[in-house]
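Q: Please design a sequence for this.
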């Protein structure tokens, strides 16, 4: 059976073939592609867009062939109706099924159209849903912050309101893509509710995701973590909820004054040079203001971008992992924390409640209630037995959810069912 994947980014093997540094994102695809390509009766190819491509490029990996194609423009109607390059890929691969990962970019709709033109069956894996995310984008930000322009925002015409609008525009092609397919793959009550409301005739297939290799090799040890430390894995835009975490920090610091908040990724508040000041977004400026308002300069640490191994190490060093988002489907960061056994506190949004059982495996709280976030973090800081109990149960649950062999078997079952 020939399977063609459409992904938003190149997988590490493809990046190395292009002499590029592999992206730290999209890690769940790595093991899934490896496990699938190891099957004797599966021939896997993977297509992905590249901004600097002008034409189709073919790369031969050890077991997987990769096809990079020029970016599909969201406003280019002929491109959305069926990209010529995508049809060329279909002609070369001759797939039984095209598996599209995510709906947030225009190439997903373009591929659906191209496949429909050629009579090839498609299935979409739901990641996030930008048409829904747009509704939650502001995450209770003050109105003045939503409307404000920094220099960077003005030059790029990309303040928070405009960012939200872009999500809504992208959401239109997302909705059209879901309406045009017969099959989707999901893993939460939230994504099932959303896609079946968009397309009531779609066939929904349940399949969990596989995590990155490193996270199956370790287990959290309370005696080896940095006590009173909190870890957030991503904070670059409002829905990730960093502002909620910062609002919770003063309440945590009242009880545990040595608390440190570690944040993965670039320091969005940095403004040491003129260039950094000019590039700051309105959201980054708001985060800077909150850090100063609550006097958190010594309590907040940005780690910089972390590769798979360093990310795993950061989780293991943490006393508590927090996912304070305003919307999520099934955040892989939460899955990674759970499988390692890091005690978790997560906002009750999207599909989070399907992943983490409240008061059994961790704490789940109302997303716009940072005072409850603070309360639950403090509960884990002060109660070692509770933290250890959550750690064990969450890890057991996550090992079942992210079982590589079971998830690969299920994916193949879905392909055979569709074919």
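A: Design:
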């Amino acid at each position: 059976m020939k399977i063609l994947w459409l992904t938003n980014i190149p997988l590490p093997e493809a990046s190395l073939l292009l002499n590029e540094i592999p992206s730290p994102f999209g890690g769940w695809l790595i093991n899934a592609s490896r496990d699938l390509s190891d099957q004797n009766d599966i021939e896997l190819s993977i297509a992905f867009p590249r901004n600097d491509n002008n034409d189709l490029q073919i790369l031969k990996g050890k077991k997987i062939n990769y096809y990079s194609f020029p970016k599909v423009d969201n406003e280019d109607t002929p491109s959305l109706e069926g990209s010529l390059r995508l049809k060329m890929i279909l002609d070369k691969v001759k797939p039984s099924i095209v598996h599209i990962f995510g709906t947030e970019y225009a190439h997903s709709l373009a591929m659906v159209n191209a496949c429909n033109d050629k009579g090839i069956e498609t299935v979409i894996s739901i990641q996030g849903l930008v048409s829904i995310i747009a509704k939650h984008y502001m995450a209770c930000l003050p109105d003045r912050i939503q409307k404000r322009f920094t220099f960077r925002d003005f030059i790029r015409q990309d303040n928070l309101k405009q960012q939200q609008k872009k999500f809504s525009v992208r959401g239109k092609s997302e909705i059209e893509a879901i309406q045009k397919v017969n099959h989707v793959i999901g893993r939460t009550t939230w994504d099932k509710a959303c896609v079946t409301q968009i397309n009531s005739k779609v066939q929904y297939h349940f399949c969990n995701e596989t995590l990155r290799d490193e996270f199956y090799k370790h287990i959290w040890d309370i005696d080896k973590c940095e006590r009173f430390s909190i870890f957030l894995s991503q904070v670059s835009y409002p829905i990730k909820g960093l502002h909620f975490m910062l609002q919770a920090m003063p309440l945590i610091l009242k009880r545990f004054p040595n608390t440190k908040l570690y944040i993965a990724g670039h320091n969005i508040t940095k403004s040491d040079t003129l260039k950094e000041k000019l590039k700051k977004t309105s959201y980054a400026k708001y985060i800077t203001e909150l850090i100063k308002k609550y006097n958190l300069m010594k309590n907040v640490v940005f780690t910089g971008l972390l590769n798979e191994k360093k990310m795993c190490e950061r989780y293991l060093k943490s006393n508590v992992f927090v996912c304070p988002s305003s919307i999520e489907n099934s955040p892989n960061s939460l899955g990674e924390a759970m499988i390692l056994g890091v005690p978790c506190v997560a906002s009750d949004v999207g599909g989070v409640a399907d992943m983490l059982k409240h008061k059994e495996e961790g704490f789940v709280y109302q997303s716009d209630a940072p005072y409850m976030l603070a309360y639950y973090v403090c509960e884990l800081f002060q109660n070692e037995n509770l933290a250890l109990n959550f750690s064990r149960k969450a890890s057991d649950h996550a090992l079942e959810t992210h079982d590589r062999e079971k998830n690969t078997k299920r994916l193949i079952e879905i392909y055979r069912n569709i074919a």
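Q: Thanks. Anything notable?
A: Residues 160-180 form the longest helix (21 residues). The chain has 19 helices and 14 strands.
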